[in-house]
Amino acid sequence: MKIKGLKPLYNSLLEGIGNTPLVRLNNLSKEFNCEVYGKIEAFNPSMSIKDRVVDYIIDKAEREGRLKPGMTIVDATSGNTGLSIALVALIKGYKCILTVKDSSAAEKITQLQLYGARVIKCPAKAKPKDPLSYYSMAQKIVDETPNAFFLDQNHNDNHFQAHYHSTGNELWQQTDGRITHFISSASTGGTVSGTGTYLKEKNPKIKIICADSKGSVLKPFHEDGKYYEELKKQTPLEGVGKDIIPSVFRSSIIDECMEIDNDASIECAKDLLRQEGIFAGGSSGAAVDAFKKYMQKYPDEKVGMAVLSFPDHGIKYMAKLYKSGVKSEDAADLI
Ligand code: PMP
Fold it and tell me: Is the C-beta atom of 311 inside 6 A of ligand 1?
């Protein structure tokens, strides 16, 4: 018997990227009397949404002749983009050097090294322009490494395009165009911007909501167009908030930036596990917290179908978030 819908053989793990499950969140749907779904990006091969981005950028650079065999891929990453780079580099035979903040979860750094990446840990406390920051170090490595390919997730337009063509298109199809609200945490802002732009082009009424953390520069930039360089990001949640304005962050398509609460977000992530069996990272909890805060702020808002982005798997944060009793203030100095 031929099984209907069964995927064909994959030529490599990269063919398993995307087409992730969109799962009804029954507790939130009941609580808010609307349909609430989670887009479970942990189903990607390296267990995060960044596989889509890196696969798209590398594939395009290869097709355009900008990335050739023997080159070294370099980027600054909180871990997930690095893991996707390490995976794609491993499968396609490139070398890679990644700069990470020394606050990144230990599990993620070990995983990068297991995948064969060279990892340079940089002080999380260094300001973006400090020569020791993970941004500056990545640029230095690019300048000093012969045949380096700078993936540049913060400013590479193909990052935005990746979400536009992949995540946005996929959500529109999966929901049969019924989606009314999209909620995603932002760090580079690639997810919320690329996905949001695609969805808004399909239906300008869809609300695009961004979860941001206290001390991040994104929400103030969205609200008054200014970059407050002196702000200090106060969150142990990886993938929520930023200290620079990446050019992939397209503020104009975002309807609202919600400032999340660290502890509430961690509790929301734990609730996802306890109530729905979804074991996700802290930024997924932040999307839930942002959604709840949005619903409290706009009690009369008509929500038909809200989709929350769940960017990665909770197993990456066992020690950092899921160890019982962890409070955000214990980890806040890490960021
Ligand atoms: N969550 C996690 C766990 C991430 O690693 C990232 C990206 N660093 C995000 C959310 C935010 O995604 P984006 O960079 O597209 O804003």
Answer: yes
Give 102-133 pLDDT, tens digit per residue: 988 888 889 999 999 999 999 999 999 999 99
Same domain for 36 and 54: no
CB 309 within 8 A of CB 195: yes
pLDDT of residue 324: 55
- Is residue 50 annotated as a catalytic residue, yes or no? yes
Q: Per the residue annotation, which of 50, 95, 101, 293 is the catalytic one? A: 50
**What is the domain extent for residue 206?**
13-48+163-322
Q: At what angle do helices 80-92 and 50-63 cross, to 10 degrees?
A: 40
Check residue 130 and give its pLDDT. Answer: 96
The finding on whether 158 has its CB within 6 A of some atom of ligand 1 is no
For a substitution probing ligand 1, which of 167, 188, 265 has the most ligand atoms within 8 Å of its CB? Answer: 188
Q: Domain holding 295: CATH number?
A: 3.40.50.1100
pTM of the predicted protein model: 0.94
What integer pLDDT is reported at residue 327 of this predicted model?
52
DSSP-derived secondary structure letter, 280: B
Structurally, the chain folds into a number of domains equal to 2
The ranges of the chain with pLDDT < 70 are 324-335
pLDDT at 78: 72
> How buried is 258 (Cβ within 10 angstroms: 0-12 exposed, 13-18 middle, 19+ buried)?
buried
**Ligand 1 atom 10 nearest Cα:** 239
User: Is residue 209 within 8 Å of 294, Cβ to Cβ?
Assistant: yes
CA distances from 53 to 82, 187, 215, 272 (A): 11, 14, 26, 25
- Give yes or no: residues 179 and 265 share one domain: yes
